Amino acid sequence: MKIAIHERKGSFSDRWIEYCKKHEICHRIVNCYDSDIIDQLKDCDGLMWHWSHADYRSQNYARQLIYSLELMGKKVFPSFSTCWHFDDKLGQKYLLESIGAPLVPSYAFYDKSDALRWAQDTDYPKVFKLRGGAGSSNVSLVQNYKEAKGKIDKAFNKGFKAYDPLKGVRERMWRLRRDKNAKAVFHLLKGFARLAIPVKGMNLLPDQKGYVYFQDFIANNAFDDRVIVIGGRAFAVRRMVRFNDFRASGSGIKEYGPQCFPLQSIKTAFNIAKIVESQSLALDFIYDQSRTSRVVELSYAFITGAFYDDCPGYWDSDLNWHEAPVDPQRFIIEDFIESI
């Protein structure tokens, strides 16, 4: 058995490579952006590539490479069914609606006049989202028709930048107020530097235009629940909303423990992961007025490190709780090796 791993520092690949070395798993470090990557992988049984939504190169062709490798009979993480909808909230809308998942009511329009007619008749507030973006970026609350029209006009004119460095500075200022430490100061200074020197490649991500996407705003949610399913395991983090805000993703304020999470959310997460045949699925849940779980969006990937390592355990697919160490990247590579 030989596994190919695309190395990207700070990604899942750090622990995958460490695992292979520790357990003497035959592996090869590859660069998935090489033109001859198909030839390089011919003698490998599978490829592991934690590709990023913020890299224009992987956005351009990661899905295409993965699908092509699967046609060759190679195992891939993430598989096409695991990641085709990654950082694509429009794709997620249709996927979740098609399987009858409890998605927060969502609305997509590709014609300006249709969007304006809907905006005149709907109730407010509504949550406006761009197709891509993580950590609550590109998400805002629209309070009335005037604000909705402004978003619609922009979407069908010059559009929205995939990454706005000024928003990045505001985000870092918020984190400085929250953390009040030297690390937050350093990151704020980096944010100011990026106003003058943008992150390499970010300007090559396509502008977001030609569509609008809204979701119903469900009030009185002081948190959301992130539930991650990897194989037969589910673990969860409760993320508290930001002060004087409605967004939880990116807040950094979290709680753990099985008592926090309704078993219905865990069960729903397992069911969705099974239906969509996902190797790794992160689902964000909020709760409506009847306290019913509602899915906001989903992803195959998530941040690395203590955010999830600190989970005290996981549920199995029969909803039994296991108090045991949680190492998501180890779960992924163990499942991957077993699949080969």
Question: What do you see in this structure?
Answer:
- It is a single chain.
- The protein is α+β, with helices and mostly antiparallel strands and 340 residues long.
- Helix content is 36%, strand content 20%.
- It has twelve helices and 15 strands.
- Strands 9, 10, 11, 12, 13, 14 and 15 form a seven-stranded antiparallel beta sheet that branches. A four-stranded parallel beta sheet has the order 2-1-3-4, sandwiched between helices. It has a four-stranded antiparallel beta sheet with strand order 5-8-6-7, sandwiched between helices.
- A hairpin with a 2-residue loop joins strand 9 and strand 10.
- Helix 6 runs antiparallel to helix 7.
- It is globular, with a radius of gyration of 20 Å.
Mean pLDDT: 91
Distance linking N and C termini = 8 Å
Indicate the proportion of strand residues.
15-25%
Major β-sheet profile: 7 strands, antiparallel
Give me the number of helical elements.
12
Which structural class do the helices and strands define? Answer: alpha+beta
Kindly provide the radius of gyration, computed on alpha-carbon positions and rounded to a whole number of angstroms. 20 Å
Helix content: 25-40%
**Total number of strands:** 15
Which stretches are poorly predicted, pLDDT < 50 over at least 5 residues? none
What series of H and E elements makes up the topology?
EHEHEHEHHEHEEHHHEEEEHEEHEEH
Quickly describe the structure.
The protein has 340 residues and is α+β, with helices and mostly antiparallel strands.
